[in-house]
Automatic annotation (TrEMBL):
Regions of compositional bias (Basic and acidic residues) in chain numbering: 9-26, 32-44
Protein name listed in UniProt: Uncharacterized protein
Ranges where the record places region Disordered: 1-44
Species in which this protein is naturally found: Candidatus Halobonum tyrrellensis G22
Highest taxon of source: Archaea
Length: 111
């Protein structure tokens, strides 16, 4: 398994595209975005964010990064996740910083 095939930090499988949510129900589609956010339940918000993440995920590292961020934001609406907007911000900032540095490679010091 390569890094791009591994679940993201929140444990979401990046290749989960079978059209069903984790409970086996129908996955919300990006077309559902037309509804007013005030009319949505937390479950609907979470599913919409995850559906959009699935739609934008592609072959590029940037699209995978955006999808991972959307999944991370969707965790705000997941009662099984213990997270806050501050934690998500810090996590996303770390992802962006690592990306700007070119990855998680550690510099080796000469001994």
């Amino acid at each position: 398994m390569t890094d791009s095939d591994a679940p993201d930090d929140a444990g979401h499988d990046p290749d989960h595209r079978d059209g069903r949510d984790d409970r086996g129900g129908e996955r919300t589609t990006a077309a559902d975005a037309d509804r007013s956010d005030a009319d949505r339940s937390d479950d609907e918000r979470r599913e919409l964010l995850r559906a959009v993440a699935d739609d934008v995920r592609g072959e590029s590292s940037e699209s995978r990064q955006v999808a991972a961020i959307l999944y991370r934001v969707s965790d705000l609406y997941d009662p099984g996740e213990d997270t806050s907007p501050e934690e998500i911000y810090l996590n996303v900032r770390n992802i962006v910083n690592v990306k700007e540095r070119g990855g998680l490679r550690r510099e080796r010091t000469e001994e």
